[in-house]
Specification:
Elements: H1 11-20, H2 33-39, H3 45-48, E1 54-62, E2 68-76, E3 83-89, H4 104-111, E4 116-120, H5 132-146, H6 148-151, E5 153-163, H7 165-179, E6 187-191, H8 202-206, H9 215-226, E7 253-258, H10 264-276, E8 281-286, H11 293-296, H12 301-318
Parallel strand pairs: 3-4, 3-5, 5-6, 6-7, 7-8
Antiparallel strand pairs: 1-2, 2-4
Helix pairs in contact: 4-12, 5-7
């Protein structure tokens, strides 16, 4: 830990950091990837969905370079009319996690808002570096749009969403869909998104060895995805959305981030650039919040407020 001045954690959240540290150590180095794949693995799908009025169907589709990618389609039980659709990319620093990681936060969209949610088992770095994760997700987005009739999804109500690494993937999907003439999106939910491989912001250096997902962890994740290209020229903006030169004509964005985490400054900058390009963004910066505190501490005042604000925005954007 350095002596750099930084915002303090919310007292209620600070109390939970000791518990979180057993699953998610502050600093993740390459030798911890295998541990994280076990520690951060989700519970069995049946347990994740237990007690919820949600129907699940798994599908195998063709991802990047023809490889197999599994998606789970989650829909409100007993609903047969076409519903809004959401393509979801999970968290895990691009190196770990699975399609049910952190999914509790968005299952209310299925039950309460009647959304059909497609969550993607994209392939992970470093075994599958750029462009595998984001192109697997883009293939899933195109699959969702092409199968909208069979899946009971409204093509005029498609949204992409993701948390942390998944938030960066969601931002890249919105850019790619615009540039490739892909599915038309009505929104993008970017929860504390991982957007910039260059690690040059003040907040990146304020959180070193403390909290959840520090500077070294971020280097580990981007190195796994990009290798020696990290920080250099020629990196695709679909992989690193902060590098995109043009943020015009993108769907409305919900961007939220903690004030006490490394992604604070790049998330704020991305929202600001969306506004500068004439776009629509709703930005929330949560005082005292560490990275992904709504996943690790959803019972806290800050966690509840984050979830409520996000759900309200999604309901507004997907409304007729």
């Amino acid at each position: 830990m350095t002596g750099t001045a930084r915002p303090d954690f919310d007292p209620e959240l600070r109390a939970g950091l000791a518990v979180v540290g057993g699953m998610f150590p502050p600093t993740i180095t390459p030798d911890l990837i295998a541990f994280m794949r076990v520690s951060y693995a989700s519970a069995p799908p049946e347990q994740v969905l237990a007690g919820r009025a949600i129907e699940r169907a798994d599908h195998v589709l063709s991802g990047h370079a023809g490889g197999e990618v599994v998606v789970s389609v989650l829909r409100p039980a007993g609903v047969t009319t076409p519903r809004p659709g959401v393509l979801y990319a999970h968290s895990g620093g691009l190196m770990f996690g699975d399609r049910f990681s952190g999914l509790d936060l968005v299952l209310d969209w299925v039950e309460r808002l009647g959304v059909v949610l497609v969550t993607v088992e994209y392939r992970l770095a470093p075994e599958h570096p750029e462009p595998y994760p984001r192109e697997d997700c883009y293939a899933a987005l195109e699959w969702l749009a092409s199968r909208a009739g069979d899946l009971g999804v409204r093509l005029d109500r498609l949204l992409v969403a993701g948390a942390s690494a998944g938030g960066g993937i969601a931002a890249g999907l919105a850019l790619a869909a615009r540039d490739r003439g892909g599915p038309r999106l009505v929104g993008q939910v970017l929860d504390y998104p991982m957007l910039d491989d260059r690690l040059h912001t003040a907040s990146t250096h304020q959180f070193d060895g403390v909290g959840v997902w520090d500077r070294v962890s971020n280097e580990t994740g981007w190195d796994a995805l990009l290798g020696t290209a990290r920080g250099g020229d020629g990196v695709s903006p679909y992989a690193v959305p902060a590098r995109a030169l043009d943020l015009s004509d993108l769907p409305p964005a919900f961007v939220d981030v903690g004030a006490a985490e490394i992604f604070r400054d790049e998330a704020i900058a991305y929202a600001d650039r969306l506004w500068q390009a004439g776009g629509d963004a709703e930005l929330h910066v949560w005082g005292g919040a560490f990275h992904a505190c709504d996943i690790f501490a959803p019972h806290t005042s800050v966690g509840r407020a984050m979830i409520g604000a996000r759900n309200g925005w999604v309901e507004k954007v997907l409304a007729d």
